[in-house]
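Morning F.,

Quick status update on the modeling queue. The single chain you submitted on Monday has been processed. Sequence for confirmation:
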Amino acid sequence: MNFEEKIIKYKDRIVFIKLSMPFFNRTLKRYIENEACFMFVNKGEVSVRTPDDYLILNHDTGMIAKCLNYFFEPTNNQKICTKGIESVGVFLYPSLVKDLFDLDVSASSYKINYNVKQVQVDLMLNNFRQSIDILLENPELVDDNIIETKLKEFVQLLVKSQNAPSQLDFLAALFKPNEIEFKTVIKQNLYTNLSVKELALLTHLSESSFKRKFKEVFNDSPKKYLTQKKIERAAELLKLRTNRVSEIAYDVGFDSVSTFNRNFAVYYGKSPSDYRTI
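Structure tokens below.
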């Protein structure tokens, strides 16, 4: 994947980043350490697939994300985006919060009921985005004092826009991911073309642990269970006679029409087209 990356670090940690990609396919944003982030989209459009949600972001919408794995994907069910995207990210860490605000995030029990949230980019947030863009494009302007000032400004803007009780409460909540039930993750992503490995990443499990957990919960292997559910859903859609077979194949999460046709014939003993005519 071709991309251009510009970063600004503070105490050896990335706090601001700008990514420009002329094209992209599904890309994992892996949780590496105790971090929270905010994402702006300067150009283009991108979807974000989380364990229990699916968001579409553009120039007018940003995203707050807690500490978890999620995927960036092309929009409109495309396998690859050829129009490109440019994004700006802001990262926060508990140790950074303590240094900048003299706040101990473990001292607050405040919680927010999301792991990822779409946020409207208002005039103040847009002005902030533009100021960070200038710094990323002109690193010679950057020093620790400017970084500290911009991070403090950013936190203030978020606290105000999210109507949080206080800085401490809002920042503490960002580092407390909400637990998501295993079944919820599977149900939310049932009709996608996510691989078993990708589903495992959304549950923060290794592939082998994911398969064991799946067997315990659904009494079946992931591949067999997911394929059956997709085929059953496809059969329902075929009876509606509104979409073409190829559209239904992609809508229920198959990568190709030929794979869909082959699996459908295994379960129903006939092709999707023949099934539709019954």
